[in-house]
Design brief:
Blueprint lengths: L5 H21 L5 E6 L2 E7 L4 E7 L5 H9 L8
Antiparallel strand pairs: 1-2, 2-3
């Protein structure tokens, strides 16, 4: 059985990227807070050439409302 086809290689790359991102997100102490205003905080991590941005916010809505906006952009004006 062929397990090293292009689709499997791409899936492995995606899984590795997701795992790396989850590990980076789990380490809260290494992020630098760059701005906090109106219940939204923005953090950065990395160098000037390659960096990640993480945001946190207090949202007085159900997460399903936010997911609905991502899934159906037409709902944005109704939300």
């Amino acid at each position: 059985m062929e397990t090293d086809c292009e689709e499997v290689r791409e899936l492995r790359k995606d899984v590795n990227c997701a795992n790396d991102s989850l590990q980076m997100l789990a380490d809260f102490s290494s992020w630098e807070l760059i701005r906090e205003e109106d219940d939204i905080a923005i953090f950065v991590k990395g160098s000037t050439n390659e960096f990640y941005i993480r945001t946190e916010m207090l949202m007085p809505y159900s997460p399903f409302c936010l997911l609905a906006v991502f899934a159906e952009v037409d709902l944005l004006s109704n939300w």
